[in-house]
Predict the structure of Peptide deformylase.
Amino acid sequence: MAPRDDTPLAERVEELLAAGGPLPIVAAGRPVLRRGTEPYDGQLGPALLARFVEALRATMHAAPGVGLAAPQVGIPLRIAVIEDPAPVPPEVAAARGRVPQPFRVLVNPVYEPVGTARAAFFEGCLSVPGWQAVVARHAEVRLRGEDEHGRPLDEMFTGWPARIVQHETDHLDGTLYLDRAEPRSLSTNEAVASLWSQPTPRTAADALGFRLP
């Protein structure tokens, strides 16, 4: 097992930010993506936290992605950012429940399912570049935590926003989307674009031989 870095988190974040520009995204195989995270309890201080959040946002935009968790840039803190302009055709948006989400910061988030409904769609990850797979997730969740100013968060998410917050919160627990994916659905980005771009993965399920909920 790779040794842990005992450098204080504030120092590690300062070093990361010193390079400027988008932060390097950690790819699958690095232990930081699998060890879980420390609850945020002021380790960075307000000014450094604000700079770190802005760097996460810039990195998410540059990638581009709709969410980014601190472990994905090598920092094991329970912090993530999300933002989704939802630039998809109306029929895709309707099938997936994808609606625009403003930029938000999730600090110490936890989610729990609301009801038993599940929805399955292709999903990717900035830490697993080049691939996508179908993941069945809770169709509605209750997310609790705080924002970057310490204000409490207690909100219901449905559709695609529910998928985003589950994906990012999972990162904070050391879970990648592949852990929850249907293995037979694993496809390159190119295959998804050319073969499986339908609003739902029904065609892919029939052709590749996996079940949908």
